[in-house]
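Hello again, I could really use a second opinion on something today. Take your time with it, there's no hurry, and the full record follows here:

___
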Amino acid sequence: MTESESVPISGGCLCGAIRWEADLPPRASVLCHCDTCRRATGAGAVGWLVFDIAVFRFVRGEPQTYHTDTQADRTFCSTCGTPLTYHHSADRPGDMDVTSGSADAPDDRPPTKDIFVEEKLTWTTRAEGPHSRCDTNNTREIAQ
């Protein structure tokens, strides 16, 4: 079994108050460009791991739930604000979408497709050129 196939898959929020696990690998890994995901997370695009809802569970803490006007539920940590899940019981009752950035090993399951590309921001493509990467923790250098 490779590392990317290992289970359970786990993750959690920034402060550690919320932890989650899934007993099977995700059915999909996508990068969402929709306006609502961008606004809900504050990111240019959002990576989602799509799990069967039956194999996903919170194992520590209880996240807050925001009920959207589109009848979906988004969860987040009430302490640190980390976005955690998206569930739309009417459209996709068997799916639990989990933010890939909250996974303990997010590089193990990179997105394999983009969704809502018609809403994609023009600047979300990878930066090219000599300044496309910053190997520092000094935030002043990141902006240069």
Notes: The longest helix spans residues 35-41.
